[in-house]
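dumping this here before i forget
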Amino acid sequence: MRILAWHGWLLEGTGSNVYAARVAAEWRRQGHDVALLCQQPRPERFEFVDASGTVDARGVSELAPTPARPATGRVVCLRPAIGRLLPVFVYDEYEGFAVKRFVDLTDDELAAYLDRNVAALRAAVAWHRPDAVVAGHAIPGAVVARRALDGARYVAKIHGSDLEYAIRLDRRYRELAREGLGGAALAVGASEDVLRRTVQLAPEAEGRTRVVPPGVEIDRWRPRPREDALARAAERLEADPDRRRGRPTSTDDRVAGLLAARDAAGLHALAASYDQGAPDPGAARRLRALAGHRGPLVGYLGKLIPEKGVERLVEAFALLPPDARLVLVGFGGFREWIAALAVALDRGDGEAARWLAEASPMKLELSPDEVAGARGIAGRVAFTGRLDHRYAPAVVAGLDVLVVPSTLDEAFGMVAAEGAAAGALPLVARHSALAEVARALERAAGFPDALSFAPGPGATRRLADALRRLLELPPAEAGRIRAAVRGHVASEWTWERTSQRLLAAAAGEVSPK
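structure:
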């Protein structure tokens, strides 16, 4: 089958980027011919891309072959010519682009961005003549597809960031979502929760929704002994030249100084002083130190932004026994505030913690006595910076528990599924689609309410209590639960099943079970 997929960004980093990449790779493996529109600057880095080029109103450029692993299908990566402006839902740096949040675009900027994508998609359709079209996100993908396809069938793939960071906040995007979803054959989402929110914001989608859970690379996310997993990740990191661009260890001293000066602007600006997309130069050393640790190891994997609730985990960790360790894997503009919280707790400085709560979005809950009792915590907390899928699966395999403390309404909870596949017990905030993921894993394990905690006021102590319960499980019982939740992921949440279900939706077929 000839498939065309529109995705507005890259093929790595965020959940929707990974989704676009993995589904395209699966379609290729299954023998399909895929045209993938995205802004990936170096598609030759991906082993499933057979050729690449650009596309604009004039048509598709000459294609450049790329080295790809043999398969019965084919993926051509086409980069729409949109100019230098790249709109995003959550601000990040993108090499070669001027980045603005969707909600910050002027009307003229938004119109030009949409027009260029419509022209590129229309040209790609004329060139590829697809049997099925998938447009990523309620905006901009759905409206781009409606305007480009002149009544032809397409499905819109909802991810959640489109709802919460644009459509809910800005009338322009509600109108665009209603236009795009009104023309879609189906709105496909990862969970019942995200589809309910979609219909609330764009009633035109009602009666035309389908749940298609995302997948996990089971062979990549797999259990491994801690010492071997972390040592191998450290060895690969030491050979990665990108780490030289990451956050210097000396930044810790700058954070401490800015905290002492109560300099909020300085903390905010500090995150721009290094490459957020690179691992920390010291990440390998920190992972080697954790490889030999025999006590509990708790972790976080994801963006370091206020909506992810990482401060909740750091505070809860401060209430755990001193033999526990915490590793924070991720990147984002809020990292230095999290680092400042670790400094305040390390010093037992209640005044500094109170200032952080007043000067930032963090909702801190520890009492002055608990802050004082956290003294010395810095030696038990390790940051790594961004670790992509070359490293993250091994690090997660070394964990006892992977915490997903997000306060944002999530579309699924991909990290929880990846953690379960890698052998880390997932522990998630019990709300939005995270609650759906938690219930599924808890049912699989026969362990009600043990892999989730209630959000809201008091969540710090509830999270700490839940962590203690999991970390105190007898080894045999913990092993049984790990096997059960991995088994659920391996049978229900794989990219093979995701790609088949998504293609069935796009082609107008009954979704496979």
